[in-house]
Amino acid sequence: MEMVFVESCNFEKLKGENYKQWKFNIKMHLLNLGLREFVDKQRPVLDTEAMRADKQNFELRKAKAPSTICLNIDENLKSIVYNIDAPTAALQEIENVFAQEQSKNWSSEDKVFAYFFLPSDTMSSYIGKISQAAKDLENAGKVIPDDDIAYRMLANLPRSYDNIVMQLYQLDDKNVTSLNVRKFLLA
Questions:
Q1: DSSP 76
Q2: DSSP code of 186?
Q3: What are phi and psi of 73, to 5 degrees?
Q4: Shortest CA distance to 127 belongs to which of 51, 183, 89, 82?
Q5: pLDDT tens for residues 33-91?
Q6: 3-state helix, strand, coil in the chain (%, to 5)
Q7: What residue ranges do the domains of the chain occupy?
Q8: Contact 24, 9 (CB under 8 A)
Q9: How many angstroms separate the CA atoms of 24 and 41, rounded?
Q10: Residue of 152, 164, 157 lying closest to 119 (CA atoms)
Q11: What pLDDT does residue 179 have?
């Protein structure tokens, strides 16, 4: 008999700007579902004497932990955890992305390169965040090459922009500038 599980959550999916609240909510949700042991640092262990039904239940719960996490991430951000099966590793990768974004002590290049196009962003606001970060770095004495900024504008767009990104990648390297990318994305 195949078991299907779907747990409804009464909190907002991870969208980036809500990382801190989402982190708390997902931990509480996993705790409520009895899955917290699968996201703690130590690996859960099943008694070697466990009955077949207990083993099946353990495997089901083990699979439920990463799926619960992934189902509570906005579609545009799921690429962060696409190739991660372990719930602990998934939460760690999400934290690496979003805790860094909220940190006040960014390394210079991380400040430019940590931006993702969030569902709440317009193209203008997304480009503006990257451009402002580059200006802040320049004012601090760290200049990021313009083509790096241009490629970063393209790198963290949602999949719905794949066709546009592919067209821009066809340009000669000398034409891949932040100004050209901005014009193309805002057109």
A1: G
A2: H
A3: -120, 135
A4: 183
A5: 888 888 776 666 677 777 888 888 888 888 888 888 888 998 888 888 888 888 888 88
A6: 60, 0, 35
A7: 18-105, 108-186
A8: no
A9: 17
A10: 157
A11: 92
Q: Which residues pair with 73 in a beta bridge?
A: 14
Question: How far is residue 75's CA from residue 47's CA, in Å, rounded to a whole number?
Answer: 37
Residue 40 structure tokens: 């703690």
Residue 6 has phi, psi (to 5 degrees) of -140, 125
- The answer on pLDDT for 9 being more than 70 is no
Q: Which amino acid is at 46?
A: L
Written as six digits, the tokens of 145 are: 């090459």
CB 123 within 8 A of CB 186: yes
Among residues 141, 144, 114, the alpha carbon closest in space to that of 129 is found at 114
Closest CA to 74 of 160, 153, 162, 149: 160
Give the residue carrying structure tokens 């802040």.
136
Instruction: Give the integer Cα–Cα distance in Å for 176 and 184.
Output: 11
pTM tops 0.70 = no
Which SS3 state, helix, strand or coil, does residue 118 take? coil
Residue 4 to residue 78: CA distance in whole angstroms: 22
- Residue (of 162, 156, 76, 158) closest to 116 by Cα position: 156
How long, in residues, is the chain? 187
DSSP assignments along 128-165, one per residue = HHHHHHHHHHHHTT-PPPHHHHHHHHHHT--GGGHHHH
